[in-house]
Amino acid sequence: MIELTDVRKVFPARRGAAEVTAVDGVSLSVAAGEFAGVVGPSGSGKSTLARLVNLLERPTSGRVVVDGQVLTDLDDDGVRKARRTVGMVFQHFNLLDSRTAAGNVEHPLELAGMGRAERRARVADLLDLVGLADRHGSRPGQLSGGQKQRVAIARALAARPKVLLCDEATSALDPASTAGVLDLLRQVRAELGLTVLLITHEMAVVRAVCDSAVLLDRGKVVDGGPLAEVLTRPHSPLAAQLLPAPAVTDTRGDLVRITVTESAPEGRVLRTLAGELGLDVEIVGGSVETVAGRRFGRLLLAVTGDDGRLDPALQRLRDGGSLVERALPGDEPVPVDLTEPEPDPAGQAPAFARLLDSPDVQR
Amino acid sequence: MNDWSRIAPQLAEATWDTLYMVGVSTVLTVLIGVPLGVLLTITAPGALSPRPVFNRALGLVVNLGRSLPFIILLVLVAPVTRGLVGTTIGSTATIVPLTIGAVPFLARLVETSLREVSHGKVEATLSMGARRRDVVRTVLLPEALPSLVAGVTVTVVALISYSAMAGAIGGGGLGDFAIRYGYQQFRTDITLTTVVLLLVLVQLLQWAGDRWARRLAHV
User: Fold this and answer.
1) Selected residues 147-206 of chain B with any CB under 8 Å from a CB in chain A
2) By CB count within 10 A, which of A58, B8, B95, B196 is most buried?
3) Domain tally for chain B?
């Protein structure tokens, strides 16, 4: 549904500042109906990447295909029409204060030239869908953050797009509103068969809703794939983000890493090592989380008292389907800090003073 | 000294002349100044429709108009006025310099107002497949409306003071009245009456403008 091929975006040098390569040769493929995440530290180019999908930013080079249409081959007029197949939701909602909730949802329908009666009916359906049937006449200023984002989602869905782009859609929300908005996204994806590309720096969001994800760093894809696959891949930087484990410095005994999945739970390993072999087993770090609705985890064990039976036992466990291996301190990628710097007032920034000042393009 | 019965009708006429000059030039100023302000905004580098060279040229013309003292402008545009109206005397003729003087002023105020509209709103609208003119029509102008109303109010008040100045060279209206009857005939009471009238006029306009802007702001 979304196909990026070797896409680059270079912002030219401006006012004495050097040029910035925000996106550097990214190839990315999102299947129809997939819920894909793009994660990365601040300045990694993820917001620019989202804007390349609907050509809000024209790529410097590379190909962008959405729903079989090569957007990069279209002229401005063609791009405008193609944008209607891609809805977009933003961190700062970007609702018009001069319009009511209903007026905001109606906006794209007006632009598409839909008749008044038809528009009214569609707006009512959409506000119903996002659970705001009673807030037609409310101004954005009278709505909570979560409600504003619901209106923005209704607006993004108004023109019946096939793809929904979410640029940090939950980053300005409190945890309760975040959960509500994520539930809504999941629900509309299922009901409308949408393809969703979600940009975020919050791993909890990826764990909650994404089927697949890519990790972006300095404009390049560092790691990625379906989450179920990524999480069982050894030494995956993305897995290290999704299931962070503290760095181990003090090594007492032998270190053993268990990758926990629903088909390879950790109990069998613990039983074998502690019970059968009678070794001293301590959990020194790890995490177990629900990812894409399934249980995944990584545990690091310190095993003492090995008398040569550990390696054969690990081999036996592996043969039996457990994901277990010896670990060395520092053999796993250290999770990068994805926390965004102080909430950028980007949404409230004066018009057009942007481009190179966008949150992801650091100078 | 008790000649107010003779003066009053003339004062009423002068007030009417001022309202006429200011009213017509306000309409003309809005009709020319708002599109000019829009052009200044959207052609700026990095804006909706960047035309850096055109933008700089336009900015230069606007600044020129703003930097000229109004009294100089009055004299300078006299030939234009004569060409357009046929005379340089009277309140209709004064509308020409008033409009020329106020357009750059309002254009800059409009530009400032439109720049305050967050780029995110523009971006959101572009992502819906909007044309640039749709963005101007459905986002920039409506979102900036409260601030535009405030800008027009300031412009009207400036036009009133310009119009009083225009009175000095035969433009008619309250300024003319104050100079001819008050200043030249040493009638401080007439001067003061005119000042009070102007003050009330400005206060009323400012109050109405503020009220209207606040009602539009919805916050």
Assistant:
1) none
2) B95
3) 1
